[in-house]
Design goal:
330 residues, five-stranded parallel β-sheet, six-stranded mixed β-sheet, 40% helix, inorganic pyrophosphatase (n-terminal core), homodimer, Diaminopimelate Epimerase, Chain A, domain 1, alpha/beta
Chain lengths: 330, 330
């Protein structure tokens, strides 16, 4: 039996479901969660939509129809089939493994390359742009009607996981799915405004400071900036507000790489966290991060440091020079 | 004969063409220009690709294969069929109307609503997302093969005119065309990096100043900032670098509108130019602009002023209050 057929079979032969996704959910996680729940309800199933933990949802997804989302595990969860969407492995499901151990059956639907196939039934499509893309194929097999309410969360997963149709996973199939979802009633303008046009004012102020302090070196190929502990308090920003700021530095014309050195606004962790991004395919910033005990991917990596900010910047520039000289000499 | 058939007929029955587009070209203009030229060359035609004026092309399109572009009119232009792409009317073709008057025949291919049908043959598709979308249909009729070299400029027109698949013209047809172009070899990552990831360092510095000075008022619904004459010189920015900055202000969560007050870096014009953007569909900022002798569209408008910056900001807030109170009372 194909993976899709196995999931179809499981859905048809059960009536009660608990649908969940990973902690700190992104657009594909929340889109998959909502779309799966709506599809099962349309099929006449008894569905609880659940997310572990108490952390508030990212506010850019505040416009989604997630009123039914439960943050407490229902008492009858052992009687339900657990459907985990967009989760690469069990540990991403939250702090409470009891959910998985006690579920009647576990269905794992995900598109991550490193999915551990932790379910009793696994639909893992590593070639899919998003979990939402996999779900569309599944819904077709299940005979689920593509209503506007269902098209919207699927589009949210698709548009966010492709970085607004920018990454390499922007395949012809992904774009045709986008077309189908718009045809089915997904409102691209509403989704765009909700997801991409709801920037906190304090985040703009934090961005202003990071951009103002940005410095270029190495003939314009390295862009480095920093945020101080006091910045967060002074502009009224929480730590997650610094996310995405490095992308502005990375986009500088002629840049090979960008680094953002941050002093976390609170906590007992390291004094400084450093994010690295490559602007060109040739550079592997994870190699640079490893020199400082960090890690990551070729294009996005990071490390922690106790050194002063100026010293960290100097070290990054030195390692960039060493790395690119080695490559040039190879 | 349909509009498409008339253009097909004209192409088939002539051998020498002069392809051009509007001054200050955007992505759809340059994409249409290059794609049309390549298609005609593929059909064995003698083609000159021409753009009036001497202004350098926007550098975000510097990665396009425009080496063959001529900025001087060839001597034999009266013998050529003029193909004007993405031009709403003759005046957009540049300062030299001789081009039009002397051409053997004028073909007008465009998607603007207000196209004046200035050609001898007109293919005007106001429902198309972009002129590039119209061209794809034309190329199909002409039997032009969709090579990677042709798919790239068509994709550039499509992605820029839909605002990265954000505006209301992001139709199912536009998205299916995007899919077809990726399939034909358009490299979305290369296009994205070229068009959207080549920000001048000085522009980041200008952005930093505008964001740092941004103020919210009226319960967070109005966001106003300004750029001083000295800012441009201090960060090494030219006037066009301030373009797009207002979009950051407009995107503030909860904002109804944004205003950016600029002192032009040089010149004899008005002391201050004010750009206005609506963040919500309900607000018509052109009504606000008209109060100050300006104009524009519902979502984007502007005016000029001799008043001091603080006074302009005060006036904008007062007019916003008047406008929204009137609407609430209506």
């Amino acid at each position: 039996m194909s993976d899709v057929a196995a999931v179809v079979d499981t859905v048809r032969s059960h009536d009660r479901f608990l649908v969940t996704t990973h902690e700190n959910p992104d657009g594909d996680a929340l889109g998959s969660l909502l779309a799966t729940s709506l599809a099962l309800v349309q099929l006449g199933k008894d569905v609880v939509m659940y997310l572990a933990g108490e952390a508030p949802l990212p506010r850019e997804y505040g416009f989604m129809e997630l009123e039914e989302l439960q943050r407490a595990l229902p008492d009858d969860h052992p009687d339900r089939v657990l459907v985990a969407v967009d989760c690469a492995n069990e540990s991403r499901l939250g702090p409470d493994p009891a959910v998985l151990r006690s579920a009647r059956l576990v269905v794992d639907i995900d598109h991550h390359h490193d999915n551990s196939r932790f379910g009793d039934v696994n639909l893992v499509g590593a070639g899919a742009s998003s979990t939402c893309e996999l779900l569309r194929d599944l819904f077709r097999e299940l005979g689920v009607e593509l209503t506007p309410e269902l098209a919207e969360p699927l589009y949210i997963g698709l548009v966010t996981d492709t970085g607004r149709f920018q990454y390499a996973n922007t395949t012809p199939k992904a774009l045709r799915l986008a077309a189908e979802l718009v045809e089915a009633g997904a409102d691209v303008h509403r989704i765009f405004q909700g997801v991409y046009e709801s920037i906190e004012f304090a985040k703009l102020k934090l961005l202003a400071r990071a951009l103002d302090r940005a410095q270029i070196s190495d003939g314009g190929r390295v862009v480095i900036s920093h945020l101080l502990r006091g910045d967060f308090a002074e502009v009224g920003a929480a730590e997650p507000y610094s996310e995405g700021i490095i992308d502005y530095l990375r986009a500088v014309e002629g840049a090979d790489m960008a680094a953002l050195i941050r002093e976390p606004p609170r906590g007992n962790g390291p004094s400084r966290r450093v994010s690295l991004r490559a602007s060109v395919d040739e550079l592997d910033v994870s190699a640079l991060a490893r020199r400082f005990g960090g890690g990551g991917h070729r294009q996005a990596a990071g490390f922690s440091s106790e050194a002063p900010i100026e010293e960290i910047a100097r070290q990054i520039r030195a390692e960039y020079t060493a790395l690119t000289s080695a490559a040039a000499g190879a």
